[in-house]
Specification:
The complex is a heterodimer of chains A (748) and B (531). Chain A is an alpha/beta fold and 748 residues long. Chain A has 32 helices and 20 strands. In chain B, the strands form 2 sheets. In chain B, strands 1, 2, 3, 4, 5, 8, 9, 10, 11, 12 and 13 form an 11-stranded mixed sheet that branches. Classes of the chains: A alpha/beta (748), B alpha/beta (531). Chain B: It catalyses: dodecanoyl-CoA + acetyl-CoA = 3-oxotetradecanoyl-CoA + CoA; tetradecanoyl-CoA + acetyl-CoA = 3-oxohexadecanoyl-CoA + CoA; butanoyl-CoA + acetyl-CoA = 3-oxohexanoyl-CoA + CoA; hexanoyl-CoA + acetyl-CoA = 3-oxooctanoyl-CoA + CoA.
Amino acid sequence: MEAVPSSSRVPRAGYACRNISTSSALQNRTHVSCDIKGDVAVVRFNTPNSKVNTLSKQLSAEFTDVMNEIWANEAVKSAVLISSKPGSFIAGADLNMLEACKTAQEVTQLSQDGQKMLEKIEHSPKPVVAAISGSCLGGGLEVAIACHYRVATKDRKTVLGTPEVLLGLLPGAGGTQRLPKMVGLPAAFDMMLTGRNIRADRAKKMGLVDQLVEPLGPGVKTPEARTIEYLEEVAIGFARGLANKTVSAKRSRGLMQRLTDYAMALPFVRQQVYKTVESKVQKQTKGLYPAPLKIIEVVKTGLDQGNDAGYLIEAQSFGQLAVTKESKALMGLYHGQVHCKKNKFGTPQKEVKTLAVLGAGLMGAGIAQVSVDKGIKTILKDTTQKGLDRGQQQVYKGKVKKKSLTSFERDSILSNLMGQLDYKGFEKADMVIEAVFEDINVKHKVLKEVIPAHCIFASNTSALPISQIAAVSKRPEKVIGMHYFSPVDKMQLLEIITTDKTSQDTAASAVAVGLKQGKVVIVVKDGPGFYTTRCLGPMLSEVVRVLQEGVDPKKVDAISTAFGFPVGAATLIDEVGVDVATHVAEDLGKAFGPRFGGGSIDLFKLMVQKGFLGRKAGKGFYVYQEGVKNRSVNSGMDEILEKFRVPANPDVCSDEDIQMRLVTRFVNEAAMCLQEGILSNPVEGDIGAVFGLGFPPCLGGPFRFADSYGARQLVDKLRKYEAVYGSQFTPCQLLLDHANSPSKKFHQ
Amino acid sequence: MSFMLSSALRNLPVSSAWAAGAFTRSLSCSSPFQAAAQPKTKKTLGKTGVKNVVVVEGVRIPFLQSGTTYADLMPHDLARAALQGLLTRTSVPRDVVDYIVYGTVIQEVKTSNVAREAALGAGFSDKTPAHTVTMACISSNQAMTTGVGMIAAGQCDVVVAGGVELMSDVPIRHSRKMRKTMLTLNRAKTLGQKLSLISKIRPDYFAPELPAVAEFSTSETMGHSADRLAAAFGISRLEQDEYALRSHSLAKKAQDEGLLQDVVPFKVPGKDTVTKDNGIRPSSLEQMGKLKPAFVKPYGTVTAANSSFLTDGASAMLIMSEEKALAMGYKPKAYLRDFVYVSQDPKDQLLLGPTYATPKVLEKAGLTLSDIDVFEFHEAFAGQILANLKAMDSDWFAQNYMGRKAKVGAPPLDKFNTWGGSLSLGHPFGATGCRLVITAAHRLKKEGGQYGLVAACAAGGQVMVCALRRGQEQQGWSCWGSAILPVIQTSLRHLWLPPPPLVLSLFPGAEPDPPCLSPPVRSCAEPQGPP
């Protein structure tokens, strides 16, 4: 430790200081560096060869080292923590480090190391200021809130948050203990239980940061470089002020905040809060996610029994959570999402600058909405003025709602949108996405007559095979499928479908557009129903059979949400639209034969005939009324269900059996997609199922589920149902292979 | 066009018109050599086929801090006083004036065409049309160049341009909800309808709507933007305070020495005659250092002391075609030459206009920065001026943001705003542009310089730059050689619309000195010849 030589030279602090900086340079640190500016030490995080800084073992060790030097150095009176990367303060703990741990104890140990380090910072006699620019998430936020003062750039890129819960974890470095004290119990619960990102200005209002720094424009350096330099200068000013007591770290709190704090100090009020939060969490997670409940417990322990107990249970719970299968599933999804945010086809030759969308319906307008704000000139074309007006209004509303936009920003974004009824300007379009109803003639007309040679034609069909659409094109290599999910601005998934003839460059373009639109992109091969629609088909068919067996729609919904589906299975049919479901079911039934049977398609047809088309018609399995929250079952369905009633076999009709009937058919079909090469890998299969179809995230997707549930057990279940219902449950070869060799896993 | 050409030809010996034309062309291809070889030659900066426009006189009423002596007046009162001052000083016959243009920023609703209201009250002929323009802090620059355009196009000979701002009183409106109710009330027919409308009024309807001091597009106040700009260029608080102190000290000196001849006294009804600007207050760095930041709190650097203050004031200027001025026996104070409007990003470069516009106008005029004798830049904030000086002196900035090979260079401070600036004299948004031009003209005359450059930044990230040449002294032709070229670069930060860059140049008249013309002509004709 350098502390020894420097303390032996107390009278010559300046010299000692120089000595220290020389010796630290000799250590060759790669992740953390330190400059001394007058009496302020500036600690810089910089994970090499990475866009973001992560709290890895190496970074933590170097950080601890540097801090020890600072505490030992008498010339230093205060410190500033900052990143060398403008876009990332610290984006969180290093996931690889966590995943490398074999046991809960190892993880608990990591957590305790972190806690100790941050506790030292919190109690540091020399004030420490966090200068935050870019993502400050998870462990990064915990570092920041352990400091005495926080200065953040008021930039869109600067976000603070505790996303651990989204990975099935909790803030494991004292965050659960410090956050409630800093922002109050309700806000802390909100942050930790939702994992939401908080922008800098909001963070300032919440008391999460103390000062904001506006990003700067160009000076004699680039805006980014100068802004972070300025952030450092401002933070140094505050660090100095804190050290010489001209700045107080105490925040002035508003009346409301003081009242809340006062109320939260009363044990019985706190109990009430815990209770409310707990019941809310229970309701939303159905008890399927252990992390939120642990977070509540840990916070509770800290507040009621003091810090030591709080830290202990935090570390232990962190360790326990890290080895749960839910956490593994969620981390798998995280990695999958990262994988699907990359363009594996490389950079397209020509960037899509002008996009034309055919059809201004929900889908078409949705696609336009996610394109215009990315600077893509978008032509929205419809055949009727009324339809076009509706679509334009949808885009406008989608932008107005975003409170983060100023009216000026909104206006300039909307200037990228051109609504029209004719094909004017299509000759300049780099890509046409059609989102018209499933009429192949319209698609063919556009394909043959309208688009220029360089233009890519993408279809948003959910059922028509792309090769059939491409058949009339002179340039089938320019035809591709882009299957968006409704509502487009909310659903993250984009399923891209390539035919045998689709060129690499076309695929690269489509993926690039999707990524630009902020989508998670999976690329699958052409075939009836592609991947997502095809997996959903057998499951919905099974839902119908369950209904026919006399199970109430509400009960079906309850059973499926209890399994982790975000939307109940009966409601899902209403949402999709009974007419669409009929259409798809017929098509897929033709293509795949009896495997897609189960429920009676005539039931759907009768529903369509009666006008029970689902939510859009106001009636389906349920009755939908504007402003009514608790919708009631459509009594008109009783008669229909009665008509198609089939006897139920009690052996396979327990709640668990019903869940497994739905899920095993889903998983079996997904496996078949992989087997047939529709899917190129299980990762995209999981991502597609979770982000597009609402497959329970806690299970991580059909393939992760097959791994964790066990292929053997899955096949056993299928066989059991096969005995009752026949070939619809026959397990596919790939699943059988996995069942036969236990070492085989979809995810290693 | 043919009329303009023929009239130019009629007034000039044919040969010299041709020579001047060739000369102008040669300037653009060989100006660097020429500038190096013979600095300060007799460039007139005139252009063939374009009329010369001259400033005959310019005046302003004293600029006062808002809320002081002018507080009870209306904007057209101030404008009228400036116009009357101009009439008194020039004795120009009222019916000679073809047109009046005024600039203003915050419009008084009752006098939305303040130019016309003021002109009528000032005793101009009611046959003289007038209009009002707005372009944030360069509104009066816009008024001036509008006049230049009218004269150059041959549509007018005599134009009065000016600007006015009264910050003591600004329109404060009812809320939109209240306005809507009141307007609907007008149309309500029955008592029942009226009562039902009135019954819908809620307390929040009474919340007033103040005029925004912020950019509409970014919602950022100008002071805030200035603070960020200063930070972007790393300008310290001390540097800004020092610059502000300089501005006040120089203004005080100029005022004491009687150099501010453009000021005309104004007898305010019910109050004493105002004869002097009242915002000049040289302080000390210690005192200035005590102030808290006004915009970026608590760590910003822009304070009340290093920003321009809210000001009431008006200015007016008489501009004519050169022939008309000479025919009427006026001695032009300056020739208005090239001017340029630019605009850029209203968020991060709101106040950086002068940097962009200066090299452009210099190129247009065929001059370099070292040719300029007098710089008059609008001082919105000390930090803004210093940031611009730094940007102009940065190769990096020129290459990365302006698409130029090299920096234009920073103006030397001994030629820069030496009689004070907007920080000390005040900044009535709409009126500042005319003050800059006439100050530049007076300084050229006093200091014996030839060329001046005027610049001002404006809201919306726009800038106007104007080139002036010093006016004729006594004997017409011979003195014209020493042209005054004040380039007026106004960068208005407050109230701009982005206009396309305009260039207007005036033909200065005959070149008196053949020897100085011939080398460029030759170099143009024989580009391959030995140097």
